[in-house]
Amino acid sequence: MRMISADEVDRSLTFAGLVETLREAFRKGAVQPVRHHHTVERPDGAASTLLLMPAWTDLNAAGTSDGGHIGVKIVTVSPDNNAIGKPAVMGLYLLLDAKTGEPQALIDGQRLTQWRTASASALAASYLAREDASKLLVVGAGALCPFLAKAHSAVRPIEEIRIWNRSPSNAEKAADALRKDGLNATGVSDLDAALGWADIVSSATISTEPLISGEKLRPGTHVDLVGGFTPGMREADDTAIARSRVYVDTRAGATKEAGDIVQPLQSGVLNPEDIIADLHELARGEKRGRTTTEEITLFKSVGAALEDLAAGIAVYSKLKG
Predict the structure, then answer these.
(1) I need a surface site. Which of 89, 184, 223, 244 has the fewest CB within 10 A?
(2) d(CA 260, CA 271)
Protein backbone atom coordinates (compact mmCIF):
# COMPACT_ATOMS: atom_id res chain seq x y z
CA MET A 1 0.00 0.00 0.00
CA ARG A 2 1.34 3.40 -0.98
CA MET A 3 1.28 6.35 1.45
CA ILE A 4 0.53 9.55 -0.47
CA SER A 5 1.30 12.93 1.10
CA ALA A 6 -0.31 16.32 0.52
CA ASP A 7 2.68 17.40 -1.57
CA GLU A 8 2.31 14.34 -3.78
CA VAL A 9 -1.39 15.12 -4.25
CA ASP A 10 -0.45 18.65 -5.32
CA ARG A 11 2.09 17.34 -7.83
CA SER A 12 -0.38 14.84 -9.27
CA LEU A 13 -3.30 17.14 -10.06
CA THR A 14 -4.19 20.26 -12.01
CA PHE A 15 -7.49 22.08 -11.58
CA ALA A 16 -8.34 21.98 -15.28
CA GLY A 17 -7.55 18.28 -15.37
CA LEU A 18 -9.48 17.39 -12.22
CA VAL A 19 -12.54 19.33 -13.38
CA GLU A 20 -12.63 17.13 -16.46
CA THR A 21 -12.03 14.00 -14.36
CA LEU A 22 -15.02 14.92 -12.20
CA ARG A 23 -17.14 15.72 -15.25
CA GLU A 24 -16.53 12.22 -16.54
CA ALA A 25 -17.12 10.70 -13.09
CA PHE A 26 -20.51 12.38 -12.74
CA ARG A 27 -21.35 11.33 -16.28
CA LYS A 28 -20.58 7.66 -15.57
CA GLY A 29 -21.67 7.53 -11.93
CA ALA A 30 -20.58 5.24 -9.10
CA VAL A 31 -22.09 3.49 -6.12
CA GLN A 32 -22.11 6.05 -3.29
CA PRO A 33 -24.24 5.45 -0.20
CA VAL A 34 -25.28 8.57 1.71
CA ARG A 35 -22.39 9.36 4.03
CA HIS A 36 -22.35 8.52 7.72
CA HIS A 37 -22.59 11.67 9.81
CA HIS A 38 -21.82 11.54 13.54
CA THR A 39 -21.62 14.26 16.19
CA VAL A 40 -18.78 13.86 18.68
CA GLU A 41 -19.68 15.85 21.79
CA ARG A 42 -16.93 17.52 23.81
CA PRO A 43 -17.24 18.79 27.38
CA ASP A 44 -14.91 21.74 26.85
CA GLY A 45 -15.85 23.18 23.45
CA ALA A 46 -17.80 22.88 20.23
CA ALA A 47 -18.74 19.39 19.12
CA SER A 48 -16.73 17.77 16.35
CA THR A 49 -18.24 15.96 13.40
CA LEU A 50 -17.10 12.57 12.12
CA LEU A 51 -17.89 11.84 8.47
CA LEU A 52 -17.47 8.48 6.74
CA MET A 53 -17.84 8.65 2.96
CA PRO A 54 -17.71 5.36 1.01
CA ALA A 55 -17.95 4.87 -2.75
CA TRP A 56 -16.97 2.24 -5.26
CA THR A 57 -16.78 1.71 -8.97
CA ASP A 58 -19.90 0.19 -10.47
CA LEU A 59 -18.39 -3.03 -11.84
CA ASN A 60 -21.53 -3.60 -13.92
CA ALA A 61 -20.93 -0.36 -15.81
CA ALA A 62 -18.73 0.16 -18.80
CA GLY A 63 -15.28 1.68 -18.57
CA THR A 64 -13.81 -0.30 -15.64
CA SER A 65 -10.83 -1.79 -17.47
CA ASP A 66 -8.58 -1.16 -14.45
CA GLY A 67 -10.68 -3.55 -12.36
CA GLY A 68 -12.36 -0.83 -10.36
CA HIS A 69 -11.78 0.67 -6.95
CA ILE A 70 -13.38 1.06 -3.54
CA GLY A 71 -12.70 4.19 -1.54
CA VAL A 72 -13.65 5.52 1.85
CA LYS A 73 -12.86 8.89 3.36
CA ILE A 74 -12.69 9.43 7.10
CA VAL A 75 -13.06 13.11 7.99
CA THR A 76 -13.28 15.09 11.20
CA VAL A 77 -14.53 18.66 11.38
CA SER A 78 -13.51 20.43 14.60
CA PRO A 79 -14.53 24.12 14.62
CA ASP A 80 -12.38 24.97 17.66
CA ASN A 81 -9.21 24.06 15.76
CA ASN A 82 -9.09 27.50 14.18
CA ALA A 83 -8.38 29.03 17.57
CA ILE A 84 -5.23 26.91 17.99
CA GLY A 85 -3.92 27.33 14.46
CA LYS A 86 -5.01 23.95 13.13
CA PRO A 87 -7.29 23.24 10.16
CA ALA A 88 -10.93 22.59 11.07
CA VAL A 89 -11.13 19.75 8.55
CA MET A 90 -8.79 16.74 8.73
CA GLY A 91 -8.97 13.29 7.22
CA LEU A 92 -7.56 10.34 5.33
CA TYR A 93 -8.63 8.56 2.15
CA LEU A 94 -8.26 4.80 1.76
CA LEU A 95 -8.27 3.41 -1.79
CA LEU A 96 -8.72 -0.33 -2.36
CA ASP A 97 -8.89 -2.73 -5.27
CA ALA A 98 -12.58 -3.35 -5.98
CA LYS A 99 -12.20 -7.04 -6.81
CA THR A 100 -9.80 -8.21 -4.11
CA GLY A 101 -10.27 -5.54 -1.44
CA GLU A 102 -6.49 -5.09 -1.32
CA PRO A 103 -5.45 -1.66 0.05
CA GLN A 104 -3.76 0.34 -2.68
CA ALA A 105 -3.15 3.77 -1.17
CA LEU A 106 -3.65 5.88 1.92
CA ILE A 107 -3.96 9.46 0.73
CA ASP A 108 -3.84 12.73 2.66
CA GLY A 109 -7.58 13.29 2.99
CA GLN A 110 -7.46 16.98 3.79
CA ARG A 111 -5.60 17.84 0.61
CA LEU A 112 -7.66 15.48 -1.53
CA THR A 113 -10.82 17.10 -0.13
CA GLN A 114 -9.56 20.59 -0.91
CA TRP A 115 -8.79 19.69 -4.51
CA ARG A 116 -12.00 17.81 -5.22
CA THR A 117 -14.27 20.30 -3.43
CA ALA A 118 -12.88 23.28 -5.31
CA SER A 119 -12.89 21.38 -8.60
CA ALA A 120 -16.54 20.33 -8.12
CA SER A 121 -17.42 23.99 -7.63
CA ALA A 122 -15.51 24.85 -10.79
CA LEU A 123 -17.28 22.04 -12.63
CA ALA A 124 -20.63 23.53 -11.61
CA ALA A 125 -19.42 27.00 -12.63
CA SER A 126 -18.55 25.67 -16.08
CA TYR A 127 -22.29 25.16 -16.57
CA LEU A 128 -23.68 27.97 -14.42
CA ALA A 129 -21.36 31.00 -14.41
CA ARG A 130 -21.40 33.47 -17.28
CA GLU A 131 -18.67 32.72 -19.79
CA ASP A 132 -17.27 36.23 -19.35
CA ALA A 133 -17.27 36.11 -15.53
CA SER A 134 -14.07 37.90 -14.44
CA LYS A 135 -14.71 39.06 -10.85
CA LEU A 136 -14.53 36.46 -8.09
CA LEU A 137 -15.45 37.01 -4.46
CA VAL A 138 -14.36 34.32 -1.99
CA VAL A 139 -16.21 34.47 1.34
CA GLY A 140 -14.08 32.85 4.00
CA ALA A 141 -10.28 32.84 4.19
CA GLY A 142 -9.81 29.28 5.44
CA ALA A 143 -7.92 26.39 3.89
CA LEU A 144 -10.30 26.11 0.92
CA CYS A 145 -9.92 29.74 -0.12
CA PRO A 146 -6.87 29.42 -2.41
CA PHE A 147 -8.20 26.21 -3.94
CA LEU A 148 -11.52 27.84 -4.83
CA ALA A 149 -9.76 30.87 -6.27
CA LYS A 150 -7.53 28.74 -8.48
CA ALA A 151 -10.23 26.28 -9.50
CA HIS A 152 -12.67 28.98 -10.61
CA SER A 153 -9.81 30.69 -12.44
CA ALA A 154 -9.27 27.45 -14.38
CA VAL A 155 -12.77 27.53 -15.92
CA ARG A 156 -13.53 31.26 -16.20
CA PRO A 157 -11.40 34.31 -17.19
CA ILE A 158 -10.98 35.60 -13.63
CA GLU A 159 -9.11 38.91 -13.61
CA GLU A 160 -9.68 40.06 -10.04
CA ILE A 161 -10.28 38.20 -6.78
CA ARG A 162 -11.58 39.74 -3.57
CA ILE A 163 -11.60 37.89 -0.25
CA TRP A 164 -13.84 38.65 2.72
CA ASN A 165 -13.44 37.10 6.14
CA ARG A 166 -14.79 37.89 9.60
CA SER A 167 -11.19 38.65 10.50
CA PRO A 168 -9.94 41.20 7.91
CA SER A 169 -6.31 40.35 8.68
CA ASN A 170 -6.92 36.74 7.65
CA ALA A 171 -8.53 37.91 4.40
CA GLU A 172 -5.45 39.97 3.62
CA LYS A 173 -3.14 37.06 4.45
CA ALA A 174 -5.05 34.83 2.05
CA ALA A 175 -4.95 37.52 -0.64
CA ASP A 176 -1.20 37.98 -0.14
CA ALA A 177 -0.63 34.24 -0.63
CA LEU A 178 -2.61 34.32 -3.87
CA ARG A 179 -0.67 37.34 -5.09
CA LYS A 180 2.54 35.38 -4.56
CA ASP A 181 1.05 32.75 -6.88
CA GLY A 182 0.45 35.40 -9.53
CA LEU A 183 -3.24 36.09 -8.95
CA ASN A 184 -4.72 39.58 -8.60
CA ALA A 185 -6.24 39.30 -5.12
CA THR A 186 -7.11 41.73 -2.34
CA GLY A 187 -8.80 41.49 1.04
CA VAL A 188 -12.00 43.49 1.56
CA SER A 189 -13.99 44.47 4.65
CA ASP A 190 -17.36 45.45 3.13
CA LEU A 191 -19.14 42.19 2.29
CA ASP A 192 -22.31 43.76 0.90
CA ALA A 193 -20.35 45.94 -1.51
CA ALA A 194 -18.29 42.95 -2.63
CA LEU A 195 -21.46 40.92 -3.25
CA GLY A 196 -22.72 43.62 -5.60
CA TRP A 197 -19.38 43.71 -7.40
CA ALA A 198 -18.85 40.00 -8.04
CA ASP A 199 -19.65 37.85 -11.06
CA ILE A 200 -19.01 34.70 -8.98
CA VAL A 201 -19.47 34.45 -5.22
CA SER A 202 -17.81 31.37 -3.70
CA SER A 203 -18.52 30.91 0.01
CA ALA A 204 -16.68 28.40 2.21
CA THR A 205 -17.58 29.01 5.84
CA ILE A 206 -19.19 27.07 8.68
CA SER A 207 -21.61 29.88 9.46
CA THR A 208 -25.00 29.17 11.01
CA GLU A 209 -26.27 32.64 10.06
CA PRO A 210 -26.59 33.69 6.40
CA LEU A 211 -23.74 35.80 5.08
CA ILE A 212 -24.85 36.09 1.45
CA SER A 213 -27.61 38.68 1.14
CA GLY A 214 -29.74 38.02 -1.90
CA GLU A 215 -30.70 41.68 -2.15
CA LYS A 216 -27.08 42.59 -2.83
CA LEU A 217 -26.56 40.17 -5.72
CA ARG A 218 -26.66 41.71 -9.14
CA PRO A 219 -28.25 40.01 -12.16
CA GLY A 220 -26.00 37.47 -13.81
CA THR A 221 -24.19 36.45 -10.63
CA HIS A 222 -23.31 32.83 -9.91
CA VAL A 223 -23.33 31.83 -6.22
CA ASP A 224 -21.24 28.84 -5.12
CA LEU A 225 -22.05 27.62 -1.59
CA VAL A 226 -19.44 25.20 -0.28
CA GLY A 227 -19.15 25.48 3.49
CA GLY A 228 -22.39 24.41 5.16
CA PHE A 229 -22.61 20.63 5.57
CA THR A 230 -25.32 20.21 8.23
CA PRO A 231 -29.00 21.24 8.28
CA GLY A 232 -28.17 23.87 10.90
CA MET A 233 -25.56 25.68 8.82
CA ARG A 234 -26.53 28.48 6.47
CA GLU A 235 -24.47 30.70 4.15
CA ALA A 236 -27.13 32.37 1.96
CA ASP A 237 -30.43 33.95 2.99
CA ASP A 238 -33.92 33.17 1.72
CA THR A 239 -33.83 36.05 -0.75
CA ALA A 240 -30.73 34.61 -2.39
CA ILE A 241 -32.49 31.25 -2.73
CA ALA A 242 -35.71 32.80 -4.02
CA ARG A 243 -33.91 34.94 -6.64
CA SER A 244 -31.82 32.08 -7.99
CA ARG A 245 -32.06 29.08 -10.25
CA VAL A 246 -30.92 26.42 -7.77
CA TYR A 247 -28.58 23.50 -8.48
CA VAL A 248 -26.89 20.94 -6.20
CA ASP A 249 -24.06 18.42 -6.39
CA THR A 250 -26.35 15.49 -5.49
CA ARG A 251 -30.03 15.69 -4.64
CA ALA A 252 -29.83 12.98 -1.97
CA GLY A 253 -27.06 14.75 -0.09
CA ALA A 254 -28.15 18.37 -0.45
CA THR A 255 -31.79 17.81 0.48
CA LYS A 256 -30.82 15.99 3.69
CA GLU A 257 -27.63 17.68 4.88
CA ALA A 258 -27.36 21.22 3.49
CA GLY A 259 -29.01 23.92 5.58
CA ASP A 260 -29.10 26.21 2.55
CA ILE A 261 -31.43 23.69 0.91
CA VAL A 262 -33.07 21.93 3.88
CA GLN A 263 -34.25 25.09 5.64
CA PRO A 264 -35.82 26.73 2.54
CA LEU A 265 -37.53 23.42 1.72
CA GLN A 266 -38.98 23.28 5.22
CA SER A 267 -40.21 26.90 5.14
CA GLY A 268 -41.62 26.71 1.63
CA VAL A 269 -39.21 29.26 0.16
CA LEU A 270 -37.93 26.43 -2.04
CA ASN A 271 -39.93 23.54 -3.47
CA PRO A 272 -38.30 20.22 -4.43
CA GLU A 273 -39.11 20.84 -8.09
CA ASP A 274 -37.27 24.18 -7.88
CA ILE A 275 -33.96 22.29 -7.70
CA ILE A 276 -33.28 22.33 -11.40
CA ALA A 277 -30.46 19.81 -11.66
CA ASP A 278 -27.60 18.06 -9.94
CA LEU A 279 -24.11 17.49 -11.32
CA HIS A 280 -25.06 14.07 -12.71
CA GLU A 281 -27.81 15.65 -14.82
CA LEU A 282 -25.64 18.55 -15.95
CA ALA A 283 -22.71 16.32 -16.88
CA ARG A 284 -24.96 13.96 -18.84
CA GLY A 285 -26.69 16.84 -20.65
CA GLU A 286 -30.05 15.84 -19.20
CA LYS A 287 -30.72 19.29 -17.73
CA ARG A 288 -29.65 22.78 -18.73
CA GLY A 289 -27.35 25.07 -16.86
CA ARG A 290 -27.40 28.86 -17.29
CA THR A 291 -29.92 29.97 -19.88
CA THR A 292 -29.52 33.78 -19.87
CA THR A 293 -26.86 36.32 -18.96
CA GLU A 294 -29.16 38.02 -16.45
CA GLU A 295 -30.32 35.16 -14.27
CA ILE A 296 -28.78 34.41 -10.89
CA THR A 297 -27.62 30.83 -10.46
CA LEU A 298 -26.87 29.12 -7.15
CA PHE A 299 -24.99 25.88 -6.62
CA LYS A 300 -24.99 24.12 -3.26
CA SER A 301 -22.30 21.54 -2.59
CA VAL A 302 -22.18 19.20 0.40
CA GLY A 303 -19.60 16.90 -1.11
CA ALA A 304 -20.07 13.58 -2.84
CA ALA A 305 -18.07 10.41 -2.22
CA LEU A 306 -17.86 9.96 -5.99
CA GLU A 307 -15.68 13.10 -6.12
CA ASP A 308 -13.20 11.67 -3.61
CA LEU A 309 -13.12 8.35 -5.44
CA ALA A 310 -12.43 9.98 -8.80
CA ALA A 311 -9.76 12.27 -7.36
CA GLY A 312 -8.17 9.43 -5.38
CA ILE A 313 -7.98 7.21 -8.46
CA ALA A 314 -6.47 10.09 -10.45
CA VAL A 315 -3.75 10.65 -7.86
CA TYR A 316 -2.98 6.95 -7.45
CA SER A 317 -2.87 6.36 -11.21
CA LYS A 318 -0.54 9.31 -11.76
CA LEU A 319 1.92 8.22 -9.07
CA LYS A 320 1.72 4.55 -9.99
CA GLY A 321 3.11 5.62 -13.32
Answers:
(1) 184
(2) 13
